[in-house]
Amino acid sequence: MSIRLQNIAKHFSSTQALEPINLDIHEGELVGLLGPSGSGKTTLLRIIAGLESADRSPQAGKILFGDRDVTNVHVRDRRIGFVFQHYALFRHMSVYDNVAFGLTVMPKKRRPSSGEIRARVFRLLEMVQLQHLANRLPAQLSGGQQQRVSLARALAVEPDVLLLDEPFGALDAKVRQDLRRWLRRLHDELNFTSVFVTHDQEEALELSDRVVVMSNGRIEQIDTPDTLYRSPKNRFVFEFLGDVNHLEGKVHNGVLTCGDAHLNVDLPNGDEELLLRPHEIRLTEQPSAESHLPVTITAISPVGAEVRVELEADWLVKPWLATVRHADFERLEMSRGQRLFAHPRHWHRFKEDTKAPAKQGRAA
Amino acid sequence: MRRIGDAPHVRRLLISAALLLSALFLLLPLIAIFAQAFSQGVAVFWSNVSNHFTLHAIGLTLMIALLTIPVCLVFGVALAWLVTRFSFPGRRVLQTLIDIPFAVSPVVAGLIYLLLYGRNGWIGSWLDTHDIQLMFAWPGILMVTIFVTCPFVARELIPLMQAQGSREEEAAVTLGASGWTTFWRVTLPNIRWALLYGIILTNARAVGEFGAVSVVSGAIRGQTNTLPLHLEQLYQDYNAVGAFASAALLALIALLSLAAKAGLEWRASRREAF
């Protein structure tokens, strides 16, 4: 079932939580709403669910599920499944009763027979691999297990759309990874339309077909994870999707100067700020003709596929972070306090006010 | 390593002070009540208890308690629901207003009701022209008892319902449950222990209330005398055994309430451990 939002806005008393938003989510899509806290992503999800109502004035927005206008339909009749951040399982009911709840509260006419309910609940519990815990109370389960129960509970009523509010936010890293993969598989198998909220860029990029990046109640960009990462529309998206190093200086005759550092750039004269990803910085023992950026290593973290190196210099306002291959790390025999030269392989630049498309450049 | 304040002599001093004070102020008076009640033998105790006026006082007291509890129950749940699940202007003020019956002296409460609903009161004079008498009759006793006990249930529920939040109820609604179903199947089971606890406190207070009731009842023997009022009258009449027999009955009700409360707490803690 596709979801279409038209002109949805939300005020909480005098503060605007959402600016008027239009959003189309296709049938069978898995869409992530990504943004920092306070960006309005949870509010948007709760409006889709019907747990929160959108502003009616100055003009009322519209929410469509497929062809069905659900703007004024109560939550209980919207046919959604909602998974809460802290699971919100019914604490006094067994796992079985939790999953069966949605089926047992159906009006008599639509309610399946008790045998059918039983069969369906166990099918769902099997799917989330928890059939052996059917008689436990939620408090006796781990966080990951509780979240799987809450997913089974939401799916039991066969919703048109599945909405998840920071579904993995309260779990530890390892469990989160597993559940993420598992949800993706489940989504591909059952092919429902899902929207989930997260503040974790990695999670959004890994899990979603498309990502909606939000900030301050606005949609900044909607794109596939790949496009989003490669060509962010503005500075906010770029900065939110990963670590960023800043280089501020004055450009004069094609040379950007900042203290005793300089870099050849193909830009007009004036004040400039360039942004670099950690993997876009190369470290060598010598400056080159194009760049002279002397830095000192202040911290080294060799954990993971790459070595993370923190760099400082008196021409830098904030330290830089660079990622170096282990081979290069060993070749240069890097150590704390060592002085090296940084070479940007690639840089990005966003003009603040004009919202003009980003300009990117290559150097060295 | 020893924790701070856990020196042996400090511990011994605190424990003995606690035991001594409990014995002096709680246990001894309780024993004295029963000792006095039975001081002239079981037969005298029994004749005092089975006295017509005492029996009537017991009956009236229990009736008032039985009528008070459901009113306070509905009022308390509705109020707690309102205060914890909705946000509206004046919510804070309402939460403070709940405490008025606790803050006001019961005698003052009784006087206010007398001024309002008495024959010469604002509302009372109108009621009088329609031949409705509230003061110096059991409806008056019921009214002040409800006033004095109404915060108990709400006070028990509000912190609990605030801590539990409304997520479970939201989950129930997204699964298609009606408001009524949500209340019976999700909200009520989550608050049932606090609710029972509130009822026990309400009952204890309703049975034992003296100040407010004494103002509005008129203490007519065999008609508007509750057990605490009856007790006081017997004592004024120099019938010590009779007074203490009634006191023993009240103490018994209090002890039963406490036992019920302890039982509930024990069950609740067992559920949590489990």
Could you describe the 3D structure shown?
The complex is a heterodimer of chains A (364) and B (274). With 364 residues, chain A is an alpha+beta fold. Chain A has helices at residues 41-49, 95-104, 114-127, 143-156, 173-190, 201-207, 225-230, 235-240, 326-331; strands at 3-12, 15-25, 30-34, 62-65, 68-69, 80-83, 161-165, 193-198, 210-215, 218-223, 245-252, 255-258, 261-264, 270-276, 281-284, 291-292, 294-301, 306-312, 320-325, 339-344, 346-349, 359-362. Chain A has 2 domains: 3-240, P-loop containing nucleotide triphosphate hydrolases (Rossmann fold, 3-Layer(aba) Sandwich), CATH 3.40.50.300; 245-362, OB fold (Dihydrolipoamide Acetyltransferase, E2P). The longest helix of chain A has 18 residues, at 173-190. Mean pLDDT of chain A is 89; it is low at 353-357. With 274 residues, chain B is mostly helical. Chain B folds into 2 domains: 1-37; 41-273, MetI-like fold (Orthogonal Bundle). The longest helix of chain B has 34 residues, at 52-85. The mean pLDDT of chain B is 90. Chains A and B meet through strand 6 and helix 4 of A and helix 10 and helix 11 of B.
**Major sheet: arrangement of strands of chain A:** 6-7-8-3-9-10
Q: What is the 3D form of chain B?
A: globular
With helices defined by DSSP (H or I, 4 residues minimum), what is the helix count of chain B?
A: 14
Counting helices, strands and paired strands, the structural category of chain A is: alpha+beta
CATH top level of the largest domain in chain A? Alpha Beta
Q: Beta fraction of the residues of chain B?
A: under 5%
Count of helices of chain A?
Answer: 9
| CATH homologous superfamily title of the largest domain in chain A | P-loop containing nucleotide triphosphate hydrolases
Please name the two chains that share the biggest interface, counting residues whose Cβ lies under 8 Å from a Cβ on the partner chain: A-B, 24 and 16 residues
Name the shape of chain A in a single word: elongated
As for the number of domains of chain A, it is 2
